[in-house]
């Protein structure tokens, strides 16, 4: 055991010793790489529909939900000093949005006076003093430390080292490895901003600490949407899973799409990203509102080829997180079932049905797979007449005795979400009894 511990510790120490957390690059350096800026300026020169929509909103004086981000971006692409001055004036006002303050400081530096720059740095430094534990605020701190690195005595080293080593690898990755929920779905966009900013500036890929989690994440994100889209005045939205009461939230749908765009931009060569790109490149879902149009223009790459998501299996299961998403087809009238972070939902006939823990639901057959919720978390029985059976709502990471007619008793462990996956030969129709081991 000592040798095993030493074998895992040494590479980790060597990795951190080789990493440099100081920032010395020129601005803009927060998210807006030279390559991305060239792409955006090319979109402007070609008068693409994403640029045209963004330009129309800014030039027409439309109210922007995130004015600092919008005006600063417009300045960088169009070199419009008036937009930059608006962004700076807004940032020096009452707002406490650390993320947008960082973007304005980094992107609008050429138009700021020294007094304005000093005031904005002081405001950012005050907000940086907090020590949060969620991805959204840690992401904002990351962007801020990178933005004002030239003003920090250690060029951002202490803050960025703490975020990467202590918060990410020391806390979040350990939760991922133990199968516990680590990053809230609504914080995934912020996480990807952090991933981009750290890789762009420190040459560190945070995904390397949890490769299995990130490999499946694009398809998890895609599959975790209800089949029916939401019609809105500006465009249609795909609706991500949610567990609160009430109607879908357009802001949540906006950031879900923004997350997917940022995922593809981060790793456009991965097969999973290419499926996600195929999901994204449909004009009916192109975001045209004041919030979404900025993200749509910033992240989308219409020149990136994608693969049809219709080739993705109808049943998605990630044993590391315990998420299960399945649908009868990729059509918008499909029946969909989702089991995620302890929540069990059915979507059919255009309505979400949230099921309480322990409530059994009629099994859903999807191709050669059968999905069902256990009537009892300790013991249940059923007939298996499919090649793959997913028994949901059991105790996570627990061992169960599985007894199949005319077969010997076997020991099977549930995944991080409490799902038991059983495989059977084609044409099977047999009785199954499962019981949790004491």
Explained architecture:
With 438 residues, the chain is of the alpha+beta class. The protein has two domains: 23-310, Glycosyltransferase (Alpha/alpha barrel), CATH 1.50.10; 314-436, no CATH class. It has 14 helices and 15 strands. The chain has helices at residues 2-18, 34-45, 49-59, 67-78, 81-91, 98-107, 114-128, 135-147, 157-177, 188-202, 211-223, 250-266, 271-280, 292-299; strands spanning 230-231, 236-237, 315-318, 323-327, 336-340, 343-348, 351-355, 364-366, 369-373, 379-384, 388-392, 399-404, 410-413, 420-423, 430-436. Strands 3-4-5-6-7 form a five-stranded antiparallel β-sheet, covered by helices on one side. Strands 8-9-11-14 form a four-stranded mixed β-sheet, with no helix packed on it. Strand 8 (364-366) and strand 9 form a beta hairpin. The longest helix is centred in the middle third of the chain and has 21 residues, at 157-177. The chain is globular, with a radius of gyration of 24 Å.
TL;DR?
This protein has 438 residues and is of the alpha+beta class. The protein has helices at 2-18, 34-45, 49-59, 67-78, 81-91, 98-107, 114-128, 135-147, 157-177, 188-202, 211-223, 250-266, 271-280, 292-299, and strands at residues 230-231, 236-237, 315-318, 323-327, 336-340, 343-348, 351-355, 364-366, 369-373, 379-384, 388-392, 399-404, 410-413, 420-423, 430-436. The longest helix has 21 residues, at 157-177.
Average pLDDT, rounded to a whole number, is 93
Structural class: alpha+beta
- Could you state the CATH homologous superfamily of the largest domain? Chondroitin AC/alginate lyase
Low-confidence segments, ≥5 residues, pLDDT <50? Answer: 7-14
What fraction of the residues are assigned to beta strands by DSSP? 15-25%
Question: What is the total domain count?
Answer: 2
Shape: globular
Q: Percentage of helical residues? A: 40-55%
Alpha-carbon distance between the termini?
Answer: 27 Å
- Name of the CATH class of the largest domain: Mainly Alpha
Please state the second-level CATH architecture of the largest domain: Alpha/alpha barrel
CATH fold type of the largest domain: Glycosyltransferase
Please tell me how large the radius of gyration is: 24 Å
Query: Largest sheet, if any?
Result: 5 strands, antiparallel
Query: How many DSSP helices?
Result: 14
Number of E-state strands: 15
């Amino acid at each position: 055991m000592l040798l095993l511990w030493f074998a895992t510790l040494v590479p980790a120490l060597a990795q951190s010793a080789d990493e440099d957390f100081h920032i010395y690059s020129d601005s803009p350096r927060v998210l807006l790489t030279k390559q991305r800026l060239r792409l955006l300026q090319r979109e402007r020169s070609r008068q693409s529909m994403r640029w045209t929509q963004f330009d129309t909103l800014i030039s027409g004086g439309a109210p922007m939900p995130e004015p600092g981000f919008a005006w600063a971006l417009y300045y960088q692409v169009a070199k419009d000093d008036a937009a930059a001055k608006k962004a700076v004036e807004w940032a020096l006002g009452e707002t406490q949005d650390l993320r947008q303050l960082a973007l304005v400081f980094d992107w609008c530096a050429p138009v700021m006076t020294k007094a304005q720059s000093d005031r904005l740095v002081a405001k950012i430094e005050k907000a940086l003093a907090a020590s949060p534990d969620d991805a959204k605020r840690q992401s904002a701190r990351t962007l801020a430390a990178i933005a004002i690195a030239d003003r920090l005595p250690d060029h951002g080293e202490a803050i960025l080292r703490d975020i990467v080593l202590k918060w990410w690898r020391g806390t979040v990755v350990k939760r991922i490895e133990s199968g516990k929920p680590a990053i809230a779905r609504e914080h995934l966009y912020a996480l990807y901003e952090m991933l981009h900013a750290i890789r762009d500036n420190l040459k560190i890929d945070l995904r390397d600490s949890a490769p299995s989690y990130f490999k499946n994440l694009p398809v998890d994100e895609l599959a975790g949407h209800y089949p029916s889209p939401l019609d809105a005045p500006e465009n249609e939205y795909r609706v991500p899973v949610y567990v609160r009461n009430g109607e879908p939230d357009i802001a949540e749908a906006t950031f879900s799409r923004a997350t997917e765009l940022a995922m593809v931009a981060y790793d456009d060569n991965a097969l999973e990203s290419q499926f996600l790109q195929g999901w994204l490149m449909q004009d009916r879902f192109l975001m045209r509102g004041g919030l979404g149009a900025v993200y749509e223009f910033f992240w989308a790459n219409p020149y990136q080829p994608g693969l049809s998501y219709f080739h993705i299996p109808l049943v998605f299961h990630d044993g590391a997180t315990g998420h299960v998403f399945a649908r009868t087809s990729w059509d918008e009238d499909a029946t969909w079932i989702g089991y995620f972070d302890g929540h069990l939902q059915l979507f059919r006939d255009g309505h979400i049905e949230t099921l309480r823990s322990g409530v059994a639901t009629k099994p859903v057959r999807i191709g050669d797979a059968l999905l069902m919720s256990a009537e009892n978390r300790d013991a249940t029985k059923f007939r298996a007449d499919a090649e793959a059976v997913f028994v949901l709502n059991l105790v996570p990471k627990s061992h169960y005795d599985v007894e199949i007619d005319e077969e010997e008793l076997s020991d099977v462990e549930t995944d991080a979400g409490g799902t038991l996956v059983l495989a059977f030969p084609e044409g099977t129709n047999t009785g199954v009894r499962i019981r949790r081991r004491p």
